[in-house]
Design goal:
about 170 residues; alpha/beta; Double Stranded RNA Binding Domain; Arc Repressor Mutant, subunit A; 2 domains; 4-stranded mixed β-sheet; two-stranded parallel sheet; 5 helices; 6 strands; globular
Length: about 170
């Protein structure tokens, strides 16, 4: 039985972020205007101010944007197909301050000819930033595709490079 969803919105350098939880796990993190963002009515009721899962996610995001966090520990449970979940799991292994290509990601999940399908799964990632799809780039390092917009992708990569260098 699924538990009711609840949500909150937090400010960030990228604009408002909507955090969605179900049970004790974060199931969604969406940027304003994000491509493939589900309708707001699917996010559930507004959460209590002391919601432990959403408070943990908000705290970790604030630490990330301050350059003090490189790994998220908030429990997550993204809903998707088995293929999508495999792609998202592989994305989560890309280290902070690093990038990889869609082709390398396809190879990492044992589907080297599925680069386009991997790209589609990356674009449908329901946990932006926490599952760092901004670290996935095109061949040769080109910045291609980001459901939150290329300006936000550039900003996230720049944040990670600047804090990795210090």
């Amino acid at each position: 039985m699924t538990q009711p969803r609840r949500h909150t919105t937090v400010d960030s350098p990228l604009g408002p972020l909507t955090l969605v939880a179900e049970g004790d796990a974060l199931v969604g993190l969406y940027l304003a205007g994000q491509r493939h963002r589900p309708p707001d009515e699917t996010f559930g009721a507004p959460a209590a101010d002391d919601d432990p899962t959403l408070t943990m996610a908000a705290t970790e995001l604030a630490e990330y944007f301050a350059g003090a966090r490189t790994v998220f520990t908030v429990p997550t449970r993204p809903a998707g197909t088995e293929f999508q979940r495999a792609v998202w799991h592989a994305i989560a292994t890309v280290p902070y301050g690093s990038t990889t290509t869609y082709a390398a990601l396809a190879a990492a999940i044992g589907r080297p000819t599925a680069t386009r399908a991997v790209g589609a799964a990356v674009g449908r990632n329901p946990l932006s930033i926490v599952v760092p799809c901004h670290r996935i780039v095109g061949a040769g390092g080109s910045l291609t595709g980001y459901a939150g917009g290329l300006d936000r992708k550039r900003a996230l990569l720049a944040l990670e490079v600047s804090t990795s260098a210090s």
